[in-house]
Amino acid sequence: MDQRQDPDSRDNLPLGDLTIRAVRPSDSEEIAALANLPGFRWGTLRLPYQTPEDTRKWIEGRAASDVRLVAVQNGKVVGNGGLNRLQGRRSHAAVLGMGVHDDYRGRGIGSRLLRELLTLADDWLDLKRIELTVFTDNAPAIALYKRNGFGLEGTHKAFAYREGAFVDAHAMARMKP
């Protein structure tokens, strides 16, 4: 368990036995179940009915430059996130994606997962730029990203089709401090 303390009081909630670790192929069943939760899926580009088999292929097919983590609490996968490093003249940048189990939101798990990803980006991968897209109606995620140094760069109109309607998304990025 990560013993580091954070000055943001929202992140100091009791998290029990929370571990952040690399994704394993054996996590495919739990990650697929996580991705199929309505709240988790609502904030992503994933389609309903993700299979454990497709999830396992996604895990095993990662590029060597990608980072994929899970947040595990009391033996259960309660969040996942990753960095997909870009190539060539954009190798200084990565795209971030993450989500937390519907029943575990508001407990600081997303903050811990994001901080771990940013630590990897800054201290191990020497990434200068981390970018992401977030639906404009996802206020908790936008607030989390802003608290962690991400700024709004623009808004994509009709970015994705979700639950029968087109939705907008913000482009946000964080430059290495």
Class by alpha and beta content = alpha+beta
Percentage of residues in DSSP E strands: 25-35%
Regarding quaternary structure, how should these chains be classified?
single chain
The assigned CATH architecture is 3-Layer(aba) Sandwich
Question: Total number of β-strand segments?
Answer: 7
Number of domains: 1
What is the rounded distance between the termini? 26 Å
Shape: globular
Mean pLDDT: 91
CATH fold-level assignment? Aminopeptidase
Tally of alpha and pi helices = 5
**CATH homologous group name:** Gcn5-related N-acetyltransferase (GNAT)
The top-level CATH class is Alpha Beta
Protein name: GNAT family N-acetyltransferase
Organism: Microvirga alba
GO molecular function: acyltransferase activity, transferring groups other than amino-acyl groups
Domain N-acetyltransferase: 18-173
Describe the 3D structure.
There is one protein chain. This protein has helices at 28-35, 38-42, 52-60, 109-124, 139-147, and strands at 18-22, 67-73, 76-85, 93-100, 129-135, 151-162, 165-175. Strands 1-2-3-4-5-7-6 form a 7-stranded mixed sheet, sandwiched between helices. The longest helix has 16 residues, at 109-124. Strand 6 and strand 7 form a beta hairpin. The protein is globular and about 35 Å long. The chain has one domain: Gcn5-related N-acetyltransferase (GNAT) (Aminopeptidase). The chain is an alpha+beta fold and 177 residues long.
